[in-house]
Amino acid sequence: MHCVAGIPTFLGQVGVRTHLSKLVGQDEVGKVFSFLASFDAVVPVLGEILITSLFNWSIGFFPGLPYLVAAGITFISAGLIAYVTKIHQEGVMYEDMPKEDAVPAPIND
Fold it and tell me: Is 106 helix (H, G, I), strand (E, B) or coil?
């Protein structure tokens, strides 16, 4: 059940990365995506350490504090995404790929 419920969790990352690829220049996309990949690798480890420390600190007076902190971080992230989407909604236009790039690469036999 966890796998089925967790399927949509990656869709937010796909949307953010797609939007970022339209906001930065073609020569900067690789740098931005490599930063995001590094960030995706480090944040779960640091987040677990910080949330566990916060829970151990607050267990005596408010054991639900880590959940409120996580909700606050999520709320801030969603607000920033909504702000960036609203600001750049008119300025980012979809561009079709050039025809020579749209042809699939040949398969070597």
Answer: coil
Q: What separation in angstroms does the CA of 62 have from each of 1, 51, 66, 76, 99?
A: 30, 13, 9, 22, 60
Q: How far apart are CA 84 and CA 82, in angstroms?
A: 6
**Helix-helix angle 29-58:65-87, to 10 degrees:** 150
Segment 20-72, tens digit of pLDDT: 787 777 888 888 889 988 988 998 899 999 999 999 999 999 989 999 999 99
- Backbone φ, ψ for residue 54 (5° rounding): -65, -40
Q: How far is Cα 73 from Cα 7, in angstroms, rounded to an integer?
A: 21
Q: Quick one: how far is CA 50 from the chain centroid?
A: 20
